């Protein structure tokens, strides 16, 4: 159990969490009236000059919430005359002489813890992700650390490979073709094969004609034979 001196350092964080929790109270809770108990005890920030700030803050809080559990829940109401008065009350007294820089701030933090316990027990008054009295003081666990990802190594080069080869390119994978693309490619290849066969036949015929003309003595002055290779 924390004593007041240990709670002093937690007060700012607890007050901030309480603000968030109060702002998230469900609309199903009733609106507080201007003459309700929270407005009566937290709306008046006048300090008893004879007793001091610490006594006044403690007295007002006890009058507001030192009642039966059933009545505590009945006093949790929304609005500017209800729970909206709690955090300004706590913040005001945390700055007063006799409380500021003393364990009196821890006393106010303990009041926040007590109020969180009341809210925890209130049906439908705990919004998701809120900071309750239970989980605020729960021991914190460190997040699990993930092992660093080691990049995959390139296969070792053989003795014949140049380790500093800058022209290395990863192997290319042949794309998968559909049946229509394959048939179209085969048709084109067949056409190219036929064209090459025709060109070969034409070249052979020209070679024969050329040889016959040369044998007949027409080797010179035949302009149309320029560029034809004689095999």
Map the helices and strands.
Layout lengths: L3 H4 L3 H13 L13 H6 L10 H13 L3 H6 L11 H9 L9 H18 L11 H4 L42 H37 L16
Report on this structure.
Residues 129-187 are annotated as: Disordered. The structure is a single chain. The protein is an all-alpha fold and 231 residues long. It has two domains: 4-136, no CATH class; 181-225, no CATH class. The chain contains nine helices and no strands. Helix 2 packs parallel to helix 7 and helix 4 runs parallel beside helix 7. The longest helix has 37 residues, at 179-215. The radius of gyration is 47 Å and the shape is elongated. The chain starts with a helix and ends in a 16-residue tail after the last helix.
CA-based shape = elongated
| Element-level helix/strand string | HHHHHHHHH
How many E strands? Answer: 0
Q: What profile does the largest beta sheet have?
A: none
Task: Report the span from N to C terminus.
Answer: 109 Å
Q: What do the pLDDT scores average to?
A: 74
Ranges with pLDDT <50 over ≥5 residues? 128-141, 212-231
Domain module tally? 2
What is the tally of helical segments? 9
Work out the helicity level.
40-55%
User: What is the CA-atom radius of gyration, in angstroms?
Assistant: 47 Å
Class based on secondary structure composition and strand pairing: mainly alpha
β-strand amount: under 5%
Region (Disordered): 129-187
